[in-house]
Amino acid sequence: MTDPMEDTGNRRRMRRIMRDWRFWLITTAALYTLLGFVVMPLVAKHEIPRQTRSLLQCESSVKSIRFNPYTFNARVRGFAIADRTGQPLASLDEVSVNFAPWPLTRKQVVLEDVRVVAPTLVVALREDGAMNLLDLVPVAAPDTTAPKKSKAPGDKAGAMVVRVDRASILNGTIEYHDATTTPRALAVLDSLNVTALSFRSAPGDTTMFDVSLAQRGSKGRVKATGWVMPFEGIVQARLDADSLNIVPADPYLARYAHLDLKSGRLAVHGDMHVVASPDTLPAIEYTGDIVSDDLRLYDDLKQQDFFGYRKLSILKAQARSLPRSARVDEFTLDGIYARIAIAADRSFNVTDVFAPAMAKAPATAAPAVSASAAEGNQSVEVTVKSTAPKTKTKTPPPDIAIGRIRIDGGEVDFSDLSLPLPFATRVHHVGGEITAIAPDNAAGSNVKIEGTVDEHGFAKATGFINVFDPVAFTDIKVDFRNIELTSMTPYSGKFMGYRIKHGKLSLGLEYDIKQAQLQAGNKILLEKLYLGEKVPSKDAVGLPIKLALALLRDKNGNIDLDLEVHGDLNDPKVNTASLIWQALKKVIVKVTTAPFRFLGNLIGIGGGDDMEYVEFEGGASRLTPPQHERLDNLGKALVERPQLKLQVSGAYDKSIDAEALRAQRFDALLMSRLLVSTQGDSAAVRAIINDPASGPMQKTLEALMTEGFGAESVTALRAERTTVPAQGGAAKLDLATYFQSMREKLTAAQPVSDAELEQLSVARAGAIRGYMVEMAKIPAERMEIIEPAVSDEKGEWVKCKLALEASD
Questions:
Q1: Closest CA to 486 of 549, 530, 523
Q2: Residue 379: closest CA among 691, 601, 92, 527
Q3: Would you state the pLDDT for residue 363?
Q4: pTM summary value
């Protein structure tokens, strides 16, 4: 049995202990220690997964939680959370918080140090476009109670101020996945280190920050330092990024173009200022440089390079979002490359590449074009007449100003496989600059760009242009010099039907546009251009191209043309290049359909159509003085156009020439009979001819009539021409009509064969050829006599037509 006295003593001692403050102090400390070190971590470790499952419907886990109730240091290790599909969303190796409890008495929550070690955040867009981060929004039933009025952060009445002296993230990682693209976009940023100092949840307070990270799989580095005013939504930062690989953006490019982003790097060095507002878009200002290196875009359809550059630099840039504006001191493109290709099926690589993003443009009708040509100076004027409605409103130009755009070492490859003979050329060593680019620059931006075409050709563009509205103001001169034309054989084969044997092109284009009204002067010089063999082409113009070139080519072998084009550029259907081609076609048509008129204008005599033929008297092959003048003029023109060959076609008229030859033959027959009757006395013959009413002439004519038609024909004809006076008397023979009737009958009886007529035409062609060779000094090899022709011209003279042909 227990001693009652002992029990009483124990109770007394216990009461003394319970009344001792040291006991309660020790007990409280023990309980506090147990609660802080053991109970709270166990409860938190259990509650965190339960609460995330309940509120977010996401699974999470915690490896361990430590809390020191004396230092107020909390540490969580091995935390991980998955999204609602079970995929990793976020994790961290460790997070530690040092809490200062004493400022709670002043309504302040002070976190002296917050440190997150090795966190990983996975940002993912799912195939349906939903973002996994939205899984962090609590899933809760709708709250039907009246909302409580929240107090502003700076409400002095009851706001609890949160202060974080230092917050840091060490060695973090951000992964980005996008399942909406094909292929899926993936980017990983690691080595993320963030430091934030002096955060306070009070308006007007500023938090300093320092951020650095690296791009996995490249040498890309990003560093940002600055300050933020969280409750005002203001951020000021210095941003330095180098060697960022932009290839991960390739899946997004594939949405808009059939292009593969093979390589490219980006560097950004500048200052950024952001002001966010809940009611409007954030106002962003940036000042600094942007540099991109080694861009290479690959055409997935054609399996060839499409566009690229060695370096793009945007220097001393200033940009803002509200209002939108940009200022750039210098924009530099170094080593730019572009490929322009037309395939065999006439598809255009630029159109094909951007097909996913391009809308089909509405079809437009061709503008009406009229042209006039003055062949003497070989100039052409083209006017465009449009019925399209003019645009009445214009979108204001963007507020962009660039001090200088500089190009160095550019190269463009052009190919056209749709031609009968595939064609390719290259413009390289492109360099130059465009300066003073601004929408308010009334004088226009100054353009100076030049490059090399193929091996020895040269191209240059100079002048002024309003780059924001070229239709309002453009004054540009484009010069091409020493362009080898043999490489243009595919185009000459397609549109002219001939290869180019040799030749060079120099082209001067001047475009003056003011308020959409175009006045363009175009000087074209073709040096020693000669065509080769024919090339089958259904698109050939069907005109005598070689003749046209021979007509236009001067004695030095050059073709010098001036073309003027006028038009209203408010009409989107106007195409200057097509107008120039139409003007050239009209020149070709005009000179080839009236080549002698062109030659007449060339030597300054006007007209010139009469040089197209030579006139002969009936039955004669003798050139008269007017024909001498005509052939002399033609000779002068042929001297100026040494590539022309003159074709001469002798001609005869079955009526005029036959009648004249019969008259000549009768006169010869009569002369021979008179000589016989006078025993060869030519003086007596002349006396008879001078006195046709004399007896010897009548006797000779009647003898010829008797030989040809019989004596009765003479008796009948005499009776027809004899009259008896009405008053009576002797009958009288009208010798004049009698002689004329015998002459006509005898002349008509003279035989003329087709061979004689053809011989006459040959003689006439020989006379023309002989005069041109002997008198006009045209080489015999430039003269060609072609098949004679039967003239059907009305008139007293027989016309022998001339033609022109280009010599090979």
A1: 530
A2: 601
A3: 45
A4: 0.68
